[in-house]
Amino acid sequence: MMQLSLFEERHEYDAGALERCLRADAVAVDIETETRWPGHGPRLDYGLTYPAAVTVMGLAWAEGGVIQTSAVAAPFDGVIHDFLLRLFRQELMIVAHNAVFDMRQLSKLTGGEVPRKVWDTQSMARLLHPAVNVSYSLLAVASALGVSFPERQQAMKGQRGKLHTLPLEETVQYAQDDARLTLEIYQKQRMMPCEGDLVDWECRAMYEYCLMAARGIRLNTPFVERRLIALRDEREVLAARLRADGLDAPSSPKARARYLYETKAIPLPKWDPNSWYFTRAGRRRLRREPGTAVQLGDLSTGAEVIESYLEEGSPYYERLKDLAAYAEVDWLISTMEGLVDHVVVDGRLHSLVTIATDTGRRASSYPHMQNWKMPAMAGVAVGDEGFTLVEIDYANAENVMAALIAGDSNLAAACMADDFHSEMAAQYFGAVWEKADSGERKHLRNMSKKITYGTAYGMGAERLGESIGVTTVEARALMRAKDAAFPRLTQVRALAQRQANEKQQLRLWTRRPVAVPTAFVAWNYVCQGGVSEMLKRAIVTVGEAYRARGMRSRVALDMHDALILEVAHEEWEAAIGMASQAMTTITPVHLTQRTTPAIRWVARPNLQENQRKWGAEQRDPTEG
């Protein structure tokens, strides 16, 4: 039996309560969205996507020391639209849990406007009271702070995906309960001590994330539709070749595992709880049953696994090149089809940019855009008319961050070299490197990449040896050579590991605390988290600088170690120059000057390469 839409029930709002709400210092907002798929847009988790209509908005504010609540429900009339604009334009703090989602959805009712002052209780929980192995859901954060909530609120969390089946008044009460709890969490968080200006940076960054999600990026729909036709044809050709080679179902993980490890006779990976070669289920089984043999069902056959078997010099390249090509094409088709579903409202991708890791690194979702592969996805997203997308990334970001944190002059010198990986190879291999010819040096340079990144992420001698094709004894010697070459780095990394063991918490260069589950990941967290802090501050600094000068250019997205700018053609040189300058001066001088040579961040766009990546299918203003 078809359920009635929430829109067919009515909830009369209290106009007087809304007016009183506007006089508060802080207002907590919680929205609910249509959870029933209407036959268009993304079918999976429809209620979390941009096309999902707002059905209910709960509000909470303090009045005379007592928390008051109210709610409005769709359909929203002109009074509610006007109220939202007034609310967003007031000099008050808007509080929400996972604020980017709420502000993105509400921006559809405000013509794209978002509030200037936003406090996200979820991201603030990660900043103000981080902890290991905890959830940052609304109820979990409340429990951690000792804020109580009614049983009905807990019960309603299990109904989130099917609110359309419930009476409207239950959903209205649920939204008000969540808004009240969010405000209570905010009141607790405001009283918590925090070093320096970390809270201010977090709030300013949250405004930028809300702006990015509300504005979105244009999908080049005609181009994507043409690409999908060509990719589907290519997939069929590859599937036919794979079937002829013994892989009947190329999209089946089980069939791919048999193909990899039986048909193609690739040795089964050794059990390692931190290895991506194993599925979550496989890791759980092997932890539960230590000493048992690895089975095909334990193994992942994702694209990253297949790609790892095709690295330069791999003996498996010829055996697996068709499977790798199929996996790449299949991923592109799935990704692009999903993007087309997401833009049904206005032709734009309104990805949620949120802090999703303990290190503070951001992720995007609904749709996911930070896993885009370039140049395979080139031309899929484009700037508006008169704009071009430009990527500016930090060169060698995590290694430069490691040099900055450790104050290691040797590593700083390597980072400043014309060829970082050759410089590192010279440190690792010494006389062998000096005597090697160009072909041998190329091989040693590739090995040095794995040594640099693998050991930074906690890789031990056995795994490193397997990765670079040497014995465990030889790998251990290379690790000792690295430690000897960069003594300050070795010392500070060991200190970070000890602190992680003792406190399960470390501080980044900004003094932001991060929860660290084990010493194994301590140095990785410090470096990745440090880069994340730089990107966050770059987003804020660049966005504010553009607006202060009345420029049309903007920060459209952040992507790992890069900003994606949407640059107005008439502002081309100025906008790019301002962004590059801002990005290179984020870290304070007292940190960059601790080494000889001094730390120098490089953040310049490669405009020629950009035309084959984020700038594809758009005008290049440098060509007149």
Secondary structure blueprint with pairings:
Blueprint: H1 15-21, E1 26-33, E2 54-63, E3 66-73, H2 78-89, E4 93-96, H3 99-106, E5 118-120, H4 121-128, H5 138-144, H6 151-157, H7 168-190, H8 198-215, E6 217-219, H9 221-244, H10 253-263, H11 280-288, H12 303-308, H13 317-342, E7 348-349, E8 352-355, E9 362-365, E10 381-382, E11 387-393, H14 397-406, H15 409-416, H16 420-429, H17 431-435, H18 438-456, H19 461-468, H20 472-485, H21 487-503, E12 505-507, E13 513-515, H22 522-548, E14 554-559, E15 562-568, H23 572-584, H24 589-592, H25 607-610
Parallel strand pairs: 1-4, 4-5
Antiparallel strand pairs: 1-2, 2-3, 6-7, 6-10, 8-9, 11-15, 12-13, 14-15
Helix pairs in contact: 3-8, 4-7, 5-7, 8-22, 9-13, 14-15, 14-21, 14-22, 16-18, 19-20, 22-23
Q: Can you give me a brief rundown of this structure?
A:
With 624 residues, this protein is α+β, with helices and mostly antiparallel strands. 49% of the residues lie in helices and 12% in strands.
Descriptive report:
The protein has 624 residues and is α+β, with helices and mostly antiparallel strands. The protein is 49% helix and 12% strand. The chain contains 25 helices and 15 strands. The protein has helices at 15-21, 78-89, 99-106, 121-128, 138-144, 151-157, 168-190, 198-215, 221-244, 253-263, 280-288, 303-308, 317-342, 397-406, 409-416, 420-429, 431-435, 438-456, 461-468, 472-485, 487-503, 522-548, 572-584, 589-592, 607-610; strands at 26-33, 54-63, 66-73, 93-96, 118-120, 217-219, 348-349, 352-355, 362-365, 381-382, 387-393, 505-507, 513-515, 554-559, 562-568. The strands form five sheets. Strands 3-2-1-4-5 form a five-stranded mixed β-sheet, sandwiched between helices. Helix 4 runs parallel beside helix 7 (168-190) and helix 14 (397-406) packs across helix 22 (522-548). It starts with 14 loop residues before the first helix and ends in a 14-residue tail after the last helix. Mean pLDDT is 93; it is low at 1-7.
